[in-house]
Amino acid sequence: MHDLLAGIRVVDLTTVVLGPYATQILADFGAEVIKVEPIGGDVFRAARPGHSADMGAPFLGCNRNKQSIALDLRKDEAREVLHRLVRGADAVVHNMRPKSADKLGIGFEQLKAVRNDLVYCFAAGYGQAGRNRDEPAYDDSIQAASGFAALNADEGGSPRFAPTLIADKVGGLHLAIALLAGLASRNRDGQAVCIEAPMFESIVSFLLVEHMSGLSFDPPLGGAGYSRLLSPYRKPYRTADGWVGIIPYTAAHWERFLRLIGREELADSPLVNDPVERSRDIGTLYALIEQATPARTTSEWLALLRERDIPCAPVNMLEDLTANEHLLDVGMFRRQSHPTEGDLVAPRSPFSVDGDTGDADVPAPRLGEQSRSILDQLGYDAREAEALIASGAVAAFEGGAGGAGPE
User: Fold this and answer.
1) Contact in structure between 123 and 129 (CB atoms under 8 Å)
2) Is a pLDDT exceeding 80 seen at residue 340?
3) Strand 193-196 to strand 119-122: parallel, antiparallel, or no bridges (unpaired)?
4) Phi/psi of residue 180, each to 5°?
5) What pTM value is reported for the model?
6) Residue ranges in 263-401 assigned as alpha helix (H)
7) Which of 34, 175, 208, 227 has its CA 20 to 30 A from that of 19?
8) Using CA atoms, how far apart are residues 117 and 261, in angstroms rounded to an integer?
9) What is the mean pLDDT of the chain?
């Protein structure tokens, strides 16, 4: 955890992955992130595997360096707790539809009345100026709607979902950027700002950077889709004992690769040296890689390609990453002891700050783990805090190691 955002307080009303991933990025940079959860907790706490019912591994993966307070925002007393939090905060963030936020009393206009220079960011499924603004949205539905599932079709043409939460995490990155932009804007003019970072539009923007292709022109110069990425020969290639990724990109890469596989007659051809022709017919070149790779083992290919400075990589399994030598060199995985979940291993933030080794990350909190300390910071005395907990407006974690959870 770094300290570039030290002194910034973010009230985090997000759930599942998109929002928590965004706020974890800010927390990794040192922002104080107060995770405000419903009494039952963020539903992603139940995602398995895990030792405890409310501390599954996927939840641990996007909620480090945060504090948790549990509030029943249907109750006036809980809303007053939230208002006190907002008065001392720099930003509020959620990933609800605005109509749901308004019902809970956490809409932009409602919270701007609490703090008039508030940075307010939200990520609904769809932009509020469009007809789908009230549609519920989850990663799978957005993968389908955005064209991603069709782009990821199998060899038979059947659309497929990616085996990662791509729409959630791309949306989370956009939401984090929105938060940082809002904070920078407020520092200049002192005005409240509301920034919308909708999930659908975020992934569409992400995909169409290269896949707008021929539709970039009016009239079009062909259809959508970047041909290099759509070639059936662009894929990991089978070797004598496994698989390898090979990506000659420049003319020099292709010339060296073609000489390596004994295709000198192509090395100086326009197919290689004319960048327009190479782009137009890249599938022909990729097919040559597929034909050549079964002749050698993966390690032989990697050695030969690295000697020639041709981009390549082994095809790692997920389980290989925690022992990857480069990742070990950079200290990507850190061990920590969680007071209730035992010993944990987690990837650190990918960012490095020159001259700053960073403080140790704080593992994800139990539900309501900091409820009492946050109430104390907000000016509630012990009697008032216990009354809020007894009323059900606030829940506080009561367990020790392997404890029973919030009361």
Assistant:
1) no
2) yes
3) parallel
4) -65, -40
5) 0.94
6) 264-267, 270-273, 275-280, 282-292, 298-307, 325-329, 371-377, 382-391
7) 208
8) 64
9) 95
Residues 6+ apart with CB under 8 A from 47: 56, 57, 58, 59
Place of tokens 């991933």: 21
CA distance 254 to 277: 13
φ/ψ of 195, rounded to 5, equals -120, 130
Following CA atoms 370, 374, 380, 382 in sequence, which dihedral angle do they give, to the nearest 10 degrees?
30
Residue 359: what pLDDT?
Answer: 87
Q: In this structure, which amino acid lies at residue 379? A: G
Residue 243: how many CB atoms within 10 A of its CB? 14
pLDDT digits (tens, 9 = 90+) for 224-245: 999 999 999 999 999 999 999 9
- What letter represents residue 301's amino acid? W
Dihedral sign of CA atoms 232, 235, 237, 243 in order: negative
Average pLDDT over residues 388-398: 96
For residues 208 and 198, give the distance between their C-alpha atoms in angstroms, rounded to a whole number: 16
Q: Is 92 in contact with 118 (CB distance < 8 Å)?
A: yes
At 81 the pLDDT is 98
Bridge partners, 314 (sequence order) = 244
Q: Is the peptide bond before 38 cis (omega within 30 degrees of 0)?
A: no
Token pair listed for 233: 């020969």
Domains in the chain and their CATH numbers?
9-206+331-395 (3.40.50.10540), 237-314 (3.30.1540)
Query: How far is the C-alpha of 6 from the C-alpha of 33, rounded, in Å?
Result: 11
